[in-house]
Design brief:
Shape of chain A: elongated
Structural class of chain B: alpha/beta
Structural class of chain A: alpha/beta
Helix content of chain A: over 70%
CATH architecture of the largest domain in chain B: 3-Layer(aba) Sandwich
Distance between the termini of chain A: 84 Å
Helix content of chain B: 25-40%
Largest interface: A-B, 30 and 39 residues
Number of domains of chain B: 2
Number of helices of chain B: 11
Number of domains of chain A: 2
Strand content of chain B: 15-25%
Shape of chain B: globular
Strand content of chain A: 5-15%
Oligomer: heterodimer
Amino acid sequence: MTVAAMQRPPKVARQSSAEGVRLALSGDWTLVASHRLEEEGRRIVEEARLDRMVAIDLSQVSQLDTAGAWLINRARHDLAGRDVAVTLKDVRPEYSTLLEETHYRDFVAPSRPRFNVIFVLLADFGESIVDALREFYRGVGFLGEFVSSMMYVAANPRRFRLTSLVAQIELVGFRSVPIIVLINILVGGIVAQQGIFQLLKFGASSYSVSLIGILVLRELGVLLTSIMIAGRSGSAITAELGSMKMREEIDALLVMGLSPIEVLIAPRVLGLVISLPILTFIADIAALFGGMVVSWWYGGISPAAFASLLKEAIALHTFLVGIIKAPFMALVIGLIASMDGLATQGSAESLGRQVTSSVVKSIFMVIVMDGLFAVFFAAIDY
Amino acid sequence: MTSSSTPASDAARQRPDRDVIIGVRDLVVGFGDKTIVKGLNLDVYRGEVLGVVGGSGQGKSVLTRTILGLTPARSGSVQVFGQNRDMLSPLERRALEQRWGVLFQNGALFSGLTVKQNIQMPMRETRDLSERLMDELALLKLELVGLSLDAADKFPSELSGGMVKRAALARALALDPELVFLDEPTSGLDPISAAEFDELIGTLQQTLGLTVFMVTHDLDSLYSICDRVAALAEGRVIAAGPLETLLASNHPWLKAYFHGVRGGRLTAARVEQKDEQWKPAPTTP
């Protein structure tokens, strides 16, 4: 039985006889015929619009569905509006219920208020500013909630979820090591190559080692790691919390008298705060290694020379400037990711929007924080 | 319209020459080292409402998913509209899939689209229709399933459970399918809404001439709209036929199901209402 192959297209045939005009419909009046069906529905009106009385004969209709019945009814309604009297003839009993159920009605779409485009644009602009401020306000509130729940955990160490924290450290820290090492080796190498290439013009290619050391330790190591983690783990946290919110798992925690911040967010944020400095350290080493390899192979600086030049260029504080920033970056990433996750609404689209916003916001905030730290360290001359 | 609280006439039920719409033969489905469906045979005839009952984990959902082609079978065959899915080209398979509609247990409405857009989705993707007709058809379907028109522009997350089911049914009916799968259509509805939903399915089934494959736990649905009932246990169909036959059966699981504490109360209540053609099996108190 291959019904699809045996499609009979819907047709309208006009026959005039002594009794009056008869429109004989035939074929499958179903949605399968697609726009063909719509055209035939219009043809009923066209064929009959100048007559007084028309009989629509359904005896040859081999199949009828809601769409077909609706179009026939719509045509009848349109004709009635032009003072054409329409009767249906030879309607099979199984079609008559369908035709009854699909009787013509006007669907008055609920009208939506219209606004001026400029008005809408301005309103949108204002709204986004208010939203941004509100977001900041909520962020500060969230930070407070987090800190107070951390204090509570500090006072009651038994409530601390060590297993969950260790799992997070594995997920966020340990599993990120390969990708962090890889990108940092590459970036260290690129900085070295560019440094040597540009400084060669001044005959100062050995200074490239100081460039690598200071740039990597103070800025690049921590920045690249933070951005990577914001993309990799921040998005994961938002998606996880967001889908938990969608499936009412967060509500389930709340009604059990448990705090989602304590149960879900604290281990994740703490996991980040612990992992990020370690990852930054690994990133620093990897970038310096990359720089060393390229300096040797491209700039002819032997590893031993590289090490002694590096030792002159940097001090402990160079390294500390970078590493001090890491936990703050982690805190920002973790809090933004959790907050956006909890702000997810019912739809899948909303989850996608929250994950995007979480990654974009945390990368932006990481860079802003880095700038603030730069100003701060310059001010205290560190 | 005839009241849908009585099943279709007995004459229609006993015609032996009816088209088989779904034919399942020796179906075996399993995951890992667990076999869930073990050599199952089942026929669904054109124009009937088949209720599938069975305990949790007895393979109702797996059977449905296998018929729909969502879960692969280990062996055996499933024929829908006389065609075996596995033998079809992708194009033929798509044509086949447009002839059925599915109501998932939790609605599975697309959460990013409004109700109207959800209903229009299958039309928009597979048919070439004007916006006006699509709007009209979507709203018509919405009325058919008993939703008010202001639900059209709402998102699924703004609907109540019963409204989600109705909207999902409207989407399942969007292309006027010949065959409709309903996965626990009345679960999660209050008894009044559930009864309304049963009636709705009955009405639509008669209006549109649908074949309905319904997985259900709701004894009321079985009584009010199913022409035949298939009972699944241990991965097989242990009994299939009109409800009366199943009620009279001596199979221990069927007895527990229909004459247990909950089923028994309902069965007894229904027996009083119904004609006295068959004697009820003794009910356990």
